[in-house]
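User: Okay, second chain of the day. Same drill as before: sequence in, structure tokens out.
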Amino acid sequence: MPLFHEKVALVTGAASGIGRAAALAFSREGAAVVVSDLHLTGAEATAAMIVESGGEALAAACDVARRADVENLVAQTVHTFGRLDFAFNNAGIGGALGMLHQKTEAEWDDVLAVNLKGVWLCLRSEVQAMQASGGGAIVNMASAAGLVGFRGASAYSASKHGVIGLTKTAALEYARSKIRINAVCPGFTDTPMVASMLEAAPELADSVRGNPLRRLGTPEETAEAVIWLCSDKASFITGQ
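Assistant: Same drill. Structure tokens below.
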């Protein structure tokens, strides 16, 4: 029996990279998957991959920085599948690299709106849907940059530190509703966002070579951590 038989999962930022890998992994484990992204074409491609593999998927466009979009996304999930059991709040942007004093207010606002406010908006709607279903599990996308400083990425690092604090607080607030909330903090991973960062700043390759395995992570490796955190195998883990 698959881990998530007759369960429903929602993944944001699922048009590519870690989000796509997680959506495919949720489907592999038996869940119906709502595949969400700002770019609907990419979300539809991920959903098609799931359907072609015999799974059940719904593609939906969503800007996680917009409350109405997020509320509609969760409502559409519940309307279509009847419940929400798991969510992976993965949508995020890197922003342009540059020293703190070189950042514009608009650049700061854009990164914080998607990476931090977006996670808060998703949590806000998801926990209400999960309370109605009797519980669930949520994983937020943080980053290694949420644990340490990241030269040239002040907004990104600040947003990911914020996600970690938000995760810890939300876990405390909804534990009695049987909702577990955790975060993953991957390092450099082979995704389109990291590829563009390495192209813009080749010196970051030193950071990749400096990690113990001396390579980029794969989207599938992070996806497996997400699946485990949502599963009953991690049933006593929350706020981590």
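The mean pLDDT is 94.

User: Thanks, on to the next one.
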